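From: lab user (bench 3)
To: helpdesk
Subject: output format question, protein + RUQ

Hello, I'm new to running complex predictions and I'm not sure whether the block I got back is the full result or only part of it. Here's what I submitted:
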Amino acid sequence: MKPVLSKISSLLLGTTLAVTAIHAADGELSKVMKERGLSEIDVIRAAKTYNPTGVKDKYVVFSSGGQSGQVIVYGVPSMRILKYIAVFTPEPWQGYGYDKDSLAILRQGNVRGKEINWGDTHHPALSEIDGKYDGKWLAINDKANPRIAVLDLEDFETKQIVPNPVFKSNHGGAFFTPNSEYIIEASQYAAPYDNNYHSIDDYKESYRGGVTMWKFDHKIGRIKPKDSYTIEMPPYHQDLSDAGKGASYGWGFTNSFNTEMYTGGIEIGNPPNEAGMSRNDTDFLHVYNWKKLAEVAKDPKNVKIVNGHPIIPMEVAVKNNALFLIPEPKSPHGVDVSPDGKYMIVCGKLDTHASVYSFEKIKKQIDNKEFIGKDPYGIPILDMKKSLHGQAELGLGPLHTQYSNVDGEVYTSLYVDSQVVKWNYKDLKVLDKENVHYNIGHLAGMEGKTSDPQGDYIIALNKLAIDRFQNVGPLHPQNHQLIDISGKTMDLLVDMPLPLGEPHQAVAIRAEKLHPHVRYKMGTNSKTGKQHIGKTLAGQERIERDGNHVTIYATFVRSHINPERITVNKGDLVTMHMTNLERAQDETHGFTIGGFDQHASLEPGETTTMEFVADIEGVFPYYCTEFCSALHLEMMGYMMVKDPNKKYVSATKMKMKTMSPEELKAEYDKAVAVNAATDSVIQSVVAFLKANGFDKHETVANLVTDAFDQYGQIPAEKKKADEALKSGDVEKAILHEGMIWQLMVKTADVGIRAKDTLVTKIATKQSPAAARGATAFAEGGCNGCHVIGKVSSGPDLTGVLQRHENGEKWVSKFIMHPETMYDDAYVKGMIDYFNLKMPDQNMSEKETKDIIEYLKWIDENANLF
Ligand code: RUQ
Ligand code: CUA
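Helpdesk reply: Thanks, we reran it on our side. This is the complete output you should expect:
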């Protein structure tokens, strides 16, 4: 065997399985490699990122969705997309912006009373405790209409949008402070704080930059605008920010460009912005003590109120020794604080260096009031050289930096060179470079900006994809590339096309830190987390009319919507409260009424409301939009809108052949008999579950609860069937019996899943050999004919070792050389019965031995199959 194949196989299969599997893999693997033109290193990279079905990722990434106004969730290392979360943009799948409750969240983002239905998301941020991700909340900024949104990681939904009352754009947000006390939002393009016209000639006087510190309530996951404040800053274009931690806890850092305060005018013959804004050799890193300023802001004397929001004027911040500037190489981009908070790395797009600032050196100058001067607004300037730990020459266009688990080791993106550079910010040495395609912007490390970076991988978020993917027209997908950083040198593993927005930045968290739930407490408004006013339980469904306001309390459960007929008058305001009564995992129902631009997604236990004016006459089918069950298409009803000013004549009834009483009775008897038979299957499953202590296993117990949710509805249905029969309405009785059968099928469906799960939990543990045997049995195709516990296209193998004298030998021989035994009387009989011959599956002696062990394990657990 080729050594590389054994290496690959052990990667793919784990060492215990390697030896057996190699036999199968050797020929097959080289064949596939040849056919697909894959090199050995390709296969190793594939093995490093491949997740077999059911296997989950180690990290979860939250990426900004750029101009889509959404958040994209995917896994690492598989790079499989898990979800798009609606944030600033209506999103129909989640019903976001289409039902009343989510629309209320979207409308929180109105700017000056105007509806804004998109956003330019840049920087997602995960909440932190002690500088480490806690997996509770996610915040993200909208650069275009300066806003911050908060998402709850218990259900991955947007819960709050907060517009900035004074900024006209932002960029340097969202960034959490180390204990999620605040979320930092820095403005980008300086503009007047008020909403009035100010001539561009008054730029220096009337336009301002700034940093808003949004107070965050970590317990409930909401920004508290009333307790928040903004630090006024000069009309430089503030850019990215980061919060100090550890040694620099309490401080914030925001860099800037256009300290020239250039205002363009290309149309009147002035040189363009890009020339005027990059004229100076240096711009300013803003250093501010947010902790102190939070106290300062509490005294009304210290703030001025603009648009109802407190601003700390620059002179107040300066007087309190809480705002400073340090020169930084021109047009910088990222400022990234080290895990211990002692250093901040600033990269300048137009400079080949990364500048490593030392907080200790900065603090010393601040404490000694040692300044080289003041800017035009009176803010003290520190000496750049005295603030620097040092600079490292990295390459062209350095932008952003991420930290790793190795002390001093960092990764920086090089936009112009299209590279990631690995270097050491302590000794300032470059260690390795890796090419990416093309023009990388941000890069995302695994918890790479926390005080506990994990290393493992770096994701390159490239600005251009060019020729990497199938051409889908002039608008190309985005390209995220996964790089393995666990070795001495970097290794680019895989490309992922992202067909949405320009994802600026992404943050990655260990998957084990996330604990999302699978269902809501019954009747929850997911947007508020509280009980919904429209919560409706089974039996409480109703339609209420108050003047021309019709309120419907509806429930959803596989496979019907209650009510199924709604008649309203043209012009009525229709409020429909909908509760998904399901407890079963992933049993979401969707809801729409055609023609009214309405859609809702109802997760198990959720209640939501849609509201619209029924302003057109007609008949409007409504239905469940999620394929939720075998009778999903039947999950429908009609809304009929009548014009109150019109007279309607009912149609002449058609004459159709009806069934005779005898035929009806026969159908009824059949329905009852089928139900009795189905029920006995259910009872046998129930007996099995009880006998094997199902309630000791939580997942099984949950499934059984789901099953009994359905089963519990049967007595009421039976009562209706019997009443109908008694009153002579056999037709109706048949329909109720039919409903009983539906409920039984749903019960059995979940019940059998519960039984299978229970079997895996209580069966004796497989020996390594038996486990290998199970794999060989499945992969060798034995299960095509033999189903354990059942006679299928071949005999049941439970007890097969006991059926023959010298059973193990007999079975081994039969597996390895079946053709030599076709004349054996028993085998002959079987061939006749099944009309099939046991084929030679080319099992090796080792595999055969393992299969025998597997068969022994089956016999040990025969009672479970
Ligand atoms: S940015 S490519 Cu909007 Cu974060 Cu740097
Ligand atoms: Cu409910 Cu489809």
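A quick orientation on your result: The longest helix spans residues 730-762. Let us know if anything else is unclear.
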